[in-house]
């Protein structure tokens, strides 16, 4: 099977379904439907899962009368793809601007450990000339 297109190509509803599958690891159409905001009909949820499977994002296994869907794309790959798209779209490709915006948004909520980790990663990037 060829590689699926980038996750940024997903519709809003497809992205919501992928988020559910990443969080749960696997789910039936009924389980996905129960977690979708402004849930569509059951048949629409099934159709969306079929579309995601046709696009190469999910696969299914039959367990009795039910199909159980799992993501084919790794959650880390999905996060990286979404972040790359966000940085390109909203920050003109500037990782520094994105990090600055996130720190300004989350600053007071970050733990000392998280701030230390960010500082170490920034220092490492500086040493490596990135």
TrEMBL record:
Biological process (GO), any one: negative regulation of DNA-templated transcription
Alphabetized InterPro entries for the sequence: BlaI_family, WH-like_DNA-bd_sf, WH_DNA-bd_sf
Ranges in a coiled coil: none
Keywords of this entry: DNA-binding, Transcription, Transcription regulation
GO molecular function terms listed in the Swiss-Prot or TrEMBL record: DNA binding
UniProt similarity note: Belongs to the BlaI transcriptional regulatory family.
Protein name according to UniProt: Penicillinase repressor
């Amino acid at each position: 099977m060829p590689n699926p297109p980038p996750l940024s190509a997903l519709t809003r509803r497809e992205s919501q379904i992928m988020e559910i599958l990443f969080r749960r690891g696997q789910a039936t159409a009924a389980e996905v439907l129960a977690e979708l905001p402004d849930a569509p009909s059951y048949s629409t949820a099934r159709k969306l899962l079929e579309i995601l499977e046709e696009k190469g994002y999910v696969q299914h296994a039959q367990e009795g009368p039910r199909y159980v869907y799992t993501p084919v794309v790794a959650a880390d790959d999905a996060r990286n793809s979404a972040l790359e798209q966000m940085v390109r779209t909203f920050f003109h490709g500037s990782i520094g601007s994105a990090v600055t915006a996130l720190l300004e948004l989350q600053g007071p909520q970050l733990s000392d450990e998280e701030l230390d980790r960010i500082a170490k990663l920034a220092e490492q990037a500086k040493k490596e000339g990135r």
